[in-house]
Structures are given as C-alpha cells and as structure tokens.
C-alpha cells in the first residue's frame, strides 16, 4: 500500500510572478545587484498553477521557474504576493523587475488597454481560454446556446483583456466582469451555482476540477494564449536573460518535465462529487483525530492518510476485500503482523500501522529522489510493493526514461503485465496498471481534502518578502504539484 503526498496541495493559489533582478544592458538598463543586495524579488499572484503552498513548502510552475532562474544567476529569491503583478510592476512596486504567472502576451488590439511600456519575455507555456458551466445546467456546445445568457470573466485580468475580440464578436452574450481576487473564486461560484457560466484558463480549470466538483469545461472560446513574464521598460537585459533561460530549459527537457509535473491534471479521474462530499461530512469526523495522531507519530500528513484510507475502504472500518485485506486501511494479514497491528479492524492501530508502512517505503527509496516524485513513487509501492516498483524503475531506465520521476515510472509500470517485459523483470509479473490508478485516485482525493480541511497546524505562512519558507517536518506534497 502507498501514501500519496499531493504536492499537487493542491490547495492552490492562482499566480502571477514578478521578480526583482537588475542587470546592465546596451540600452539604459540598471546594473546587476551588488553582492550586498543579492536579491531577486518576485511579485506573485497565488493560485493553483503558478504559486501555491502546502505541507511540503512553496511550489508552482512559475515559482519553480523563478527559483531555478534565481539559483542559476546566483541570487536569493524573494517572493511578494500581488493580486495584480502587472499593475505593481508598472508602478515600480517593491522594486520588482519581473511579472509572470497568468500573464498573457498582449495582442496589438489589447496593448493599449494594458500597460504599454512593459516588456514581455518569450512564451514558456500556452493555455486555452475555456468556457465552464455548472453541471446542473445543460452543457453548451456553441455560442448560439448562450445567446442572452450571462458569462462571467474576472474584471481587468490579463485574460479578460486578451478576450476583447471574442466579446466584440458575440454581442448576444451578456458579458459579466467580476471583481474577484482569483480564478479559483470565479470557478467556485460556477460550481456552487451562483454563476452559470464563466471563462477561465484551461490549466486552472484542470487544476481545480477535483476541488470544485460541480463544474465542467464546455468548449474553448479562443486560440491558445501565450504565458509570458513581464518586465519594467528599463529591464531589456533581464528580459533577454530570461528568454535565454527559457530556451535552454526547452532544449534540455526541463520545461517539459515541469509541464508534466504541474499541468497533467486532465489525467486525474474526476471524483463522484455527491458520494465523496457526503462521506466527508458524515464519516471523516469519526476518524479525523486518528489520522492526526498518526501524523504526529509518523510525520505523514493527516489528509494524505485520509485520502489513502478513502481509496482503500471508503472510510469503512469493517471493510473486507476479496483478497482478504481488512479494515480502514485494508491491511493484509502479513503486513499487519509485520507492523504489529494484531487487530486490523482496530481503526487506530490500522491507521498508525499504515502511516509507519508508508514512511518506511519512502525511506527505502534512494535519497536523491526529490518531492513530489518521492511521495508518488512511495504511493505506488504502497499498492504494488517496493519490489515491483523497483522493477518498473529499472524498466524505465532501460527505456531511457528517468527512474526517479513518477511521470516516467507510471509509463513503465503497466508494462509489467506483459510477458515481453515481466519475463525479464527480477520480481516477475505485476498488475502494473493498478498502482497507476491508485496513485491518481489518492491524489485526487487528497486535492479535495487539502482544499476543504484544515492542516493539523500551520505549516507554511506565505508572506511578502519570504525566502524559501520551510514547513514543519511533513514530507507530503500539496495541491497541484502534479
């Protein structure tokens, strides 16, 4: 059995980055910071794609890019929260010199409405603006289905400006600008039925699909929009360095790996909204204290343990599987005996045993494997066994994939059910598709619990000017880190 640590923490915060990094250039650009002011300040709008926090620390696509860039250039990264990084950047807020995370390259038509003097980097990712709808309504398939209806967008956002042409082409729609702090707030209102329709970035809709369970994507409303970083007009040299940085990451595959980590939400199964939410309300309170005690004992985040338990037994402490696994955590007799849990129907003993087991599996993995891959691989081992996981890692390496990456190993695991591969494997046949599904399901449940349930105690406090804040020791990932 395994324990999932959702790096994906998915309690996510939607983001825009802006960093302070001065460099000299041919044009009137400032000189690089001196050793005494060796800081790279990043203005970041929190969110499920760009910047979020959880039990393991700060993460997100744009955050990781900024962290790598600062490290490569020899600077200390500083992150400051900003609801509108472009406005802050344009006014010189906090001496920041980069803005990104949910910043779209302005079109010729949109530029006059934005901040015309800012500079923009090359694109590092592209997203589609998509229409989302409340699932209690009929799914629209074309604009004609929406004639006379209201469609919400976040007022004055980069995406709203980029959609200027779409709004002009469809005067039959009642466009509804919303003064909301984030895409997440907009999606939550569609999910709860306050709004019928809204337009949001595809990556953020995917990131939140298992947090807000009553909305769905209808159709793409425009061509893909380029995500970029923004810079003050005096920072042309910095922009050029960032462009070179993005180009190198694209060539060496790092950008693709980050994309797979953070933007593979569409591969996650969509949860049964009604059943899961009912059980969160009715059953989770019975076991919350047990999961929290196990966290205090083992260091395994309680919401992760709860997600594993739900996948195993749907929080039924009397559950018995066809293979003889029993109890809340579905321990086999042999595993329970090894872990000292004599009564598998004793919920507290079962949870503590499972937490220790998961902790031991993580400890057996090579120390070089970083999070969130470490947790995802341990989850797979929890389900299929550490021996078969090692076979899959060896197979991934033979296929010239990274054996320390969950995205690579999940491609290799299903092959262990094929004679072509398992006959050459040290530990033989395995139903390798099962751990892949197991990890995906646990991560999906964990996302929801991270969003809806409080941590045992505050483990990370995001604040302006924070550098690499580290949580108390729990090693599980959080929302969105896919």
Provide tags for this entry.
single chain; about 475 residues; alpha+beta; D-Maltodextrin-Binding Protein, domain 2; Lysozyme; three-stranded antiparallel sheet; two-stranded parallel ribbon; about 40% helix; disordered N terminus; disordered C terminus
Would you spell out the secondary-structure blueprint of this structure?
Blueprint: E1 39-44, E2 52-54, E3 57-59, H1 61-73, E4 76-81, H2 85-90, E5 119-120, E6 125-127, E7 129-134, E8 150-154, H3 158-162, H4 164-169, E9 174-178, H5 183-191, E10 197-201, H6 202-207, E11 215-220, E12 225-227, E13 230-231, H7 236-252, H8 254-262, H9 273-282, H10 284-298, H11 302-313, H12 333-338, H13 347-364, H14 373-384, H15 386-398, H16 406-412, H17 419-422, H18 433-452
Parallel strand pairs: 1-4, 8-9
Antiparallel strand pairs: 2-3, 5-13, 6-12, 7-10, 7-11
Helix pairs in contact: 10-11, 10-13, 11-18, 13-14, 14-15, 14-18, 15-16
List unreliable stretches of 5+ residues: 1-36, 458-473, 478-482
CATH topology of the domain at 273-452: Lysozyme
Strand content: 5-15%
Shape: globular
- The CATH architecture of the domain at 273-452 is Orthogonal Bundle
Instruction: Report the span from N to C terminus.
Output: 20 Å
Please tell me the overall pLDDT. Answer: 81
- What helical percentage do the residues reach? 25-40%
- Helix and strand content put the structural class at alpha+beta
- Strands ordered across the widest β-sheet: 10-7-11
Q: Radius of gyration, Cα only, in angstroms?
A: 24 Å
CATH class division of the domain at 273-452: Mainly Alpha
Number of strands: 13
Assembly context of the chains: single chain
What is the count of DSSP helices, taking H or I runs of 4+ residues?
18
Largest sheet: 3 strands, antiparallel
């Amino acid at each position: 059995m395994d324990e999932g640590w959702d790096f994906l923490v998915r309690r996510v915060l939607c983001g825009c980055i802006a960093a302070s990094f001065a460099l000299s250039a041919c044009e009137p650009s400032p000189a690089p910071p001196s050793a005494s002011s060796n800081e790279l300040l990043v203005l970041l709008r929190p969110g499920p794609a760009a910047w979020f926090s959880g039990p393991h620390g700060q993460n997100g696509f744009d955050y990781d890019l900024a962290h790598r860039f600062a490290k490569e250039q020899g600077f200390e990264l500083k992150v400051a929260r900003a609801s509108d990084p472009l406005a802050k950047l344009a006014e010189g807020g906090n001496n920041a010199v980069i803005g990104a995370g949910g910043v779209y390259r302005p079109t010729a038509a949109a530029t006059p409405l934005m901040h015309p003097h800012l500079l923009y980097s090359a694109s590092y990712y592209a997203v589609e603006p998509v229409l989302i709808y409340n699932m209690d309504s009929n799914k629209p398939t074309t604009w004609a289905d929406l004639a006379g209806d209201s469609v919400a967008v976040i007022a004055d956002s980069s995406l709203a400006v980029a959609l200027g042409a779409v709004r002009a082409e469809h005067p039959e729609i009642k466009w509804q600008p919303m003064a909301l702090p984030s895409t997440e707030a907009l999606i939550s209102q569609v999910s709860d039925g306050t709004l019928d329709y809204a337009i949001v970035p595809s990556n953020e809709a995917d990131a939140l699909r298992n947090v807000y369970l009553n909305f769905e994507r209808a159709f793409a409303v425009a061509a893909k929009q380029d995500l970029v970083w923004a810079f003050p007009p005096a920072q042309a040299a910095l922009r050029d360095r960032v462009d070179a940085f993005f180009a190198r990451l694209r060539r060496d595959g790092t950008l693709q790996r980050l994309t797979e980590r953070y933007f593979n939400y569409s591969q996650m199964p969509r949860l049964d909204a009604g059943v899961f939410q009912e059980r969160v309300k009715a059953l989770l309170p019975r076991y919350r204290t047990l999961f929290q005690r196990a966290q205090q004992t083992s260091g395994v985040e309680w919401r992760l343990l709860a997600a594993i338990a739900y996948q195993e037994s749907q929080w039924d402490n009397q559950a018995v599987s066809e293979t003889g696994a029993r109890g809340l955590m579905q321990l086999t007799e042999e595993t329970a005996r090894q872990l000292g849990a004599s009564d598998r129907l004793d919920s507290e003993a079962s949870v503590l045993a499972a937490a220790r087991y998961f902790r031991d599996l993580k400890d057996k993995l090579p120390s070089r494997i970083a999070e969130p891959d470490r947790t995802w691989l341990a989850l797979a081992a929890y389900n299929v066994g550490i021996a078969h996981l090692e076979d899959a890692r060896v197979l991934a390496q033979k296929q010239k994939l990274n054996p320390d990456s969950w995205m690579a190993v999940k491609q290799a695991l299903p092959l262990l059910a094929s004679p072509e591969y398992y006959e050459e494997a040290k530990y033989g046949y395995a139903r390798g598709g099962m751990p892949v599904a197991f990890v995906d399901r646990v991560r999906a449940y964990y996302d929801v619990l991270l969003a809806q349930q409080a941590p045992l105690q505050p483990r990370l406090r995001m604040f302006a000017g924070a550098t690499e804040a580290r949580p108390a020791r729990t090693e599980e990932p959080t929302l969105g880190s896919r």
